[in-house]
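Residues determine shape. Take a concrete instance:
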Amino acid sequence: TSSMFEFDCWRQVWSTRTPMPQSRVAHQVAVLDGRIYAVGGITEWNGTNSVATDTIVMFDPKANTWSPRASMKCKRCFFGMFTSGGYLYAVGGRPSWRGHSSCVASMERYDPRLDRWEIVSAMGTPRSSFQSVCVNRGQVSVFHRWIAEAEARSQQVILESKGKGGRDRKRRRK
């Protein structure tokens, strides 16, 4: 859907905001520096043959407007996303609705100041259909259900970030 609604926690009321320029499913949304980013997913539905997009749009709540931003390096749907250190990160996912056997292993980072994505790391095993991604003290925990072989199990992967200019490392917990 392209609809957008906002809930005011103080007044306890919902309001309608400007809809996204294009409908999306299987995408991710995150807030960074007071702006909302809608990333990837599927924008043109063609049943189970639908292909993911690499596009991103940013919502400015003060202006109530959406604007396109630089596209990701990989087309992704059913991926994980988080923010850390002033960056937006996209990890794993699939290139299409049906892509259980062709999951993506890469993680890329978006720099809003430069409007640019770069690949920063890769998981040892491609994964998609994330249950959650969270950051705690520079460590990123990824919880998912699908790996490239389509095994239905959850596994936690920790990606440790050294921050700006540092190297990313990874370790697994089973």
About this structure: Confidence is low (pLDDT under 50) at residues 146-174. The radius of gyration is 16 Å. The first strand starts at residue 4 and ends at 8. The chain has no helices and 14 strands.
